[in-house]
Specification:
Blueprint: E1 2-3, E2 11-12, E3 17-20, H1 21-24, E4 25-29, E5 44-48, E6 51-56, E7 61-69, E8 78-87, E9 91-96, H2 103-113, H3 129-132, E10 136-139, H4 142-187, E11 195-197, E12 205-207, E13 211-214, H5 215-218, E14 219-221, E15 225-226, E16 233-234, E17 257-260, E18 265-268, E19 277-278, E20 284-286, E21 290-295, H6 301-308, H7 311-321, H8 331-335, E22 338-341, H9 344-387
Parallel strand pairs: 5-8, 16-20
Antiparallel strand pairs: 1-2, 3-10, 4-9, 5-6, 7-8, 7-9, 11-12, 13-22, 14-21, 15-17, 17-20, 18-19, 18-21
Length: 393
């Protein structure tokens, strides 16, 4: 092995070279295209700074190419394009000087180089072709490049196939959870209960003994605000979508915030389709992008949280704010939503059932997530070893 002087790959086999990108390829940005010229369907895929954007009726390239994202927060990301495609001005097309170059070897080498670190602006991150040209990469002999590419095609393909299976399983569990919640908060737990028509299409049939109310009839909107930031703080990003779990982040607060007490119900009104709801066990402050609600005696908070995070409620709100650049629901709209409420004892039973059922589903989803993360780490390790010459091929 010999030293390279490259931070991300300090050593390579003796028979390999270190080359500037400009010495092995020509880099050229794609052509300008407007959003009006991009459709959901069409003859040729359009690639931008973050991958495929849609389709159009013309193409700029034909063949197998590596693309480098030139603009945006993910600039430096690597994509592959095959056949006829349109490369936009936000993508850099890599034209290799060596004919029939293996794109997988090259693409994964460039991915490992992490060109995002070269971004020149925080406001509008971007990469200059003139900077990319002088980036150094390890350059094995042609037969080794071919072997690396073929190995990565097979190895990464197998890992990707496994990840696709896991992601389908995770999606199935997620759908199951939404279905379980929907069934419980619209039908209850007794399969033999007498039903009646709610009169609302997106709710359907409900148990006959449930009372028709509105959200604002069973919870009070808390409007207290404070400029005191020396309290526990909850931001929207602290709450996981759909499951009401709290996650630690680096979110910081300043200015005016909403005040909440232990047992209050928080619901994110900005981008409500993200379904961010939470019941804190302590008092503190939160972003003003939350509704802070306090349940009346007739309303069990955990049951209420399950109801407002149920798919039929979120879908209804989502449709109401569709097409808005910064979608945000308001209290008149949200508080006016129908809420068919069971007796308090039944609310507790349903909430306890959902706590137990959802906990098992969440555990299964978390386990699948860990397997997906492990597969991602394995992919990275496989690529790093291959493009740095640490594998015997």
């Amino acid at each position: 092995m010999k030293e390279t002087g490259i931070d991300w790959v300090p050593s390579i086999p003796d028979g390999w070279s270190v080359m500037r990108l400009k010495d092995i390829a020509k880099l050229q940005s794609g052509e300008t295209i407007t959003s009006n010229d991009i459709d959901e369907t069409g003859d040729y895929p359009v690639y931008g700074g973050n991958g495929m954007r849609g389709f159009t009726d013309s193409y700029t390239n034909e063949g197998d190419y590596v693309l480098i994202g030139r603009q945006g927060a993910l600039c430096g990301n690597i994509n592959y394009a095959h056949g006829k495609f349109f490369a936009s001005e936000h993508a850099v097309v890599v034209y290799t000087k060596e004919r029939n170059e293996n794109t997988t070897w090259l693409g994964e080498t460039l991915r490992t180089a992490n060109f995002n670190r070269l971004s020149t602006s925080a406001a509008q991150p971007g990469l200059a072709v003139s900077v990319l040209n002088f980036q150094k990469i390890p350059y094995p002999p042609k037969e080794i490049r071919e072997k690396i590419g073929n190995y990565l095609d097979a190895r990464l393909g197998a890992i990707d196939k496994r990840m696709a299976v896991l992601e389908k399983q995770r999606d199935a569990y997620t759908r199951l959870k939404k279905s379980v919640i929907h069934q419980a908060v619209t039908r209850g737990l007794n399969p033999d209960v007498r039903l009646k028509d709610s009169g609302i299409e997106w709710i359907g049939m409900i148990p006959e003994h449930w009372e028709e109310r509105r959200i604002k009839d069973v919870v009070e909107l808390i409007k207290e605000k404070t400029a005191d930031t020396n309290q526990p703080y909850i931001a929207l990003e602290n709450i996981e979508s759909w499951n009401g779990n709290f996650v630690e982040t680096d979110a910081e607060t300043e200015g005016t915030n909403s005040v909440f007490q232990s047992g209050d119900i928080l619901f994110g009104k900005l981008r409500p389709y993200l379904a961010k709801g939470f019941i804190p066990s302590y008092g503190g402050i939160c972003s003003t992008e939350f509704f802070v609600m306090r349940a009346q005696k007739s309303c069990y908070p955990r049951y209420f949280l399950y109801y407002i995070l149920s798919k039929h409620v979120i879908d209804y709100i989502k449709n109401k704010v569709a097409g808005v650049k910064m979608p945000r629901t308001n209290w008149t709209e949200f508080g006016g939503l129908p809420f068919f409420i069971p007796p308090l004892s039944e609310q507790r039973s349903i909430a306890q059932y959902l706590d137990e059922k959802c906990a098992r589903i969440d555990a299964a989803i978390a386990n699948i997530g860990r397997q997906i993360d492990a597969s991602k780490r394995l992919k990275k390790a496989v690529v790093n070893a291959a493009v740095s010459g640490k594998l015997e091929l």
